[in-house]
Design goal:
CATH architecture: 3-Layer(aba) Sandwich
Strand order of the largest sheet: 6-7-8-3-9-10-12-11
Structural class: alpha/beta
Number of domains: 1
Helix content: 25-40%
Radius of gyration: 23 Å
Number of strands: 12
Order of helices and strands: HEEEHEEHEHHHHHEHEHEEHHEEH
Largest sheet: 8 strands, mixed
Strand content: 15-25%
Distance between the termini: 30 Å
Oligomer: single chain
CATH class: Alpha Beta
CATH topology: Rossmann fold
C-alpha cells in the first residue's frame, strides 16, 4: 500500500502565490480490459506568473493531466478523485456551463499538432475571432477582427491581413502554431497550458516559439504549464519542474536545482541519456526496460523494474515524496530520512517480537 505523501506545496516553499493547485488528482479509464489509472494521485502547484514544466516519457500521464484541468476527459475516462483549485475555486465543483466558460477565457491550451486542432474548412482568422466572440459578448465582429489582426502581429505572423483569410493547410507548421498561440491568448488567460507545442517543429522555429511564449508571459503576466518530453525546452523556459512516471510525480525541483542535482533514478536516467557535445560518446545511455502497462502496474515503486538501485522494499511499497532540502521532492526510498528509517526498523522488530513464540 502507498504511504501518505508529504504535503509541502510550492507556495509554502517559495513564498509565491498559487494560481492553480492540483491536489491528489485521479483520472482513470474504465475499459473492458480493466481500469487504466492514467493520473494517479498527482499534486501540482503553478504560481502566478511562472512557467512550470511537466516532464516524462510518452504515456506517463502528462497530457491527461492537462485534459483533466481543461475538463476534456471523455468517456470511458473519468476524474475519480482530488481537486483542481484555480484562484482558490474547485473547477470540479463548477457546472458544465461554468466550466466551459472558464476554460477558454481564464484557462487556455495549445495542443501538440495544430492541423488536428484547427478546422480545415474555416479560415484561421475566423477561428480566432470566434474564440473572442464566444467569451467577449460586448465585442462586435469588426472589433474582434481587429483584435485578431493585432494578435497575429504580436505572435509574429507576417502580413496578418492576408493570413487572416488563409486556411490551415495554406500555412507552414510554424505559422499554424503561432495561430494556435494567438487563439490561446485571445482572451488574455491567467494560465496557458502548452502540450508539446514544439514537437512537430524544427529547432529554429522551436526557438522562435519559445521566445514568443516568454515574451507574451512577460507582457501579460500569464502562467504557463509546459508539458514536454524535451529537457532542452525545460531548461530554456521553465522556473520549476515536475517529473512524471507511470501516472505519478516522482520528482519536483526548481529548474536549475533539477539539472544540477537530479535525484530520482528515473530523472538521472533521462538527463544521462542526453547527448553531450563536449564528451566523446560511442553510444547514448538508455534506461533499460519498458514503461509499464498502466493496466498491469507493478506492485511497489513503478520504476523499480527498470531501476539499477532497486531493493526488495521497492518492489513491495510505493515510496512517498521526501523533501531532500529546499523544497526538492523525490519519490524514492534512497532519500528516506535516517531517523524515519530507524523508527520503521524498530517498529518492525517490535511487531516481530510480539508475534514470536514466548
Amino acid at each position: 500500500m502507498e504511504q501518505n505523501t508529504q504535503t509541502q506545496t510550492l507556495p509554502e516553499q517559495t513564498g509565491e502565490q498559487a494560481l492553480l493547485e492540483l491536489n491528489d488528482l485521479h483520472t482513470s479509464f474504465f475499459t473492458k480490459a480493466g481500469v487504466v489509472r492514467a493520473v494517479d494521485g498527482v499534486s501540482i502547484t503553478i504560481p502566478a506568473g511562472k512557467t512550470v514544466g511537466l516532464v516524462g516519457e510518452s504515456g506517463c500521464g502528462k497530457s491527461m493531466t492537462a485534459m483533466s484541468i481543461m475538463g476534456l476527459v471523455s468517456r470511458p475516462g473519468k476524474i475519480t478523485g482530488g481537486s483542481i483549485l484555480f484562484h482558490g475555486e474547485d473547477l470540479l465543483a463548477l457546472s458544465p456551463k461554468a466550466r466551459r466558460q472558464m476554460c477558454g477565457d481564464k484557462l487556455s491550451i495549445i495542443f501538440q499538432e495544430p492541423m488536428t486542432s484547427l478546422n480545415p474548412v474555416i479560415t484561421v482568422g475566423a477561428q480566432v475571432r470566434e474564440a473572442i466572440l464566444t467569451h467577449r459578448r460586448d465585442v462586435s465582429k469588426a472589433q474582434a477582427r481587429e483584435q485578431v489582426l493585432d494578435l497575429f502581429r504580436q505572435v509574429g505572423i507576417p502580413d496578418p491581413e492576408r493570413r487572416y483569410a488563409s486556411y490551415p493547410h495554406q500555412l507552414s507548421g510554424g505559422l499554424r502554431q503561432r495561430v494556435m498561440i494567438a487563439m490561446a491568448m485571445a482572451c488574455s488567460p491567467d494560465l496557458l497550458i502548452a502540450d508539446e507545442p514544439t514537437t512537430a517543429l524544427d529547432v529554429t522555429i522551436e526557438a522562435q516559439i519559445l521566445h514568443l511564449m516568454r515574451k507574451l508571459q512577460q507582457e501579460h503576466g500569464t502562467s504557463i504549464l509546459m508539458i514536454t518530453h524535451n529537457l532542452g525546452v525545460v531548461a530554456e523556459i521553465c522556473d520549476y519542474v515536475y517529473v512524471m512516471y507511470a501516472g505519478k510525480v516522482v520528482e519536483f525541483a526548481e529548474v536549475h536545482e533539477l539539472f544540477r542535482n537530479p535525484s530520482h533514478p528515473y530523472t538521472r536516467g533521462l538527463i544521462r541519456s542526453l547527448p553531450k557535445l563536449q564528451a566523446a560518446q560511442e553510444r547514448l545511455y538508455n534506461i533499460k526496460g519498458m514503461v509499464p502497462d498502466l493496466l498491469h502496474l507493478p506492485e511497489g515503486c513503478r520504476f523499480a523494474p527498470r531501476c539499477e538501485q532497486a531493493c526488495p522494499r521497492c518492489h513491495q511499497e510505493i515510496p512517498p515524496l521526501y523533501d531532500i532540502g529546499g523544497g526538492h521532492l523525490v519519490r524514492c526510498f534512497l532519500f528516506q530520512p535516517e531517523e524515519e528509517a530507524m523508527a520503521e526498523s524498530e517498529n518492525a522488530a517490535s511487531h516481530s517480537e510480539e508475534g514470536g513464540t514466548p
